Amino acid sequence: MLIEKKKGILQELYLVEIIKGLWITMRNMLFSRKVTIQFPEERREYSERFRGAHYIKATNGVENCTACMLCPTVCPAECIHIEAGERPDKEKYPVKFEIDVLRCCFCGMCEEACPKDAIKLSNIYEMSTTYREVYDKSFLLDQRGGK
Ligand code: SF4
Ligand code: SF4
User: Fold this and answer.
1) Ligand lying closest to the C-alpha of residue 104
2) Closest residue (by CA) to atom 2 of ligand 2?
3) Residue 69 lies in a domain
4) What's the pLDDT at 146?
5) What is the pTM of this model?
6) Structural domain of residue 95, as residue ranges?
7) Looking at the domain assignment, is residue 19 inside a domain?
8) Strand partners, 82
């Protein structure tokens, strides 16, 4: 035979539980470490090793890239597309250099493989856009510093 335990009036009204819940809310609100920030006025410090948006380095306005094709070869996502050309000084250069950032997994292998220190991943993490999914050469050179 089941013996029903008679609940007290406080338990019937859930008063104790409500007060406990309110206490947890107040404690977190007043004493916990702040985890949100007022972006974009406040920005988080990211590690120097953070791998964000790509850019191409240039020296005296000329891209360091010699279109050696190492980065598209190592890229596991196959998202780098380069068309090579030849400058009058016989140096190869990328006529077209595109990165499909929607496919990129930001592994950093292109940066590791580059013998000319040309392709880099910056610490820029604001990459959401409604108009651009492929970074072209001018964007990689100009918009991301190219220095
Ligand atoms: S970071 Fe990785 S996936 Fe992205 S372009 Fe470079 S090699 Fe390819
Ligand atoms: S590895 Fe470097 S030099 Fe070679 S194609 Fe890529 S960015 Fe250019």
Assistant:
1) 1
2) 114
3) yes
4) 43
5) 0.74
6) 54-143
7) no
8) 97
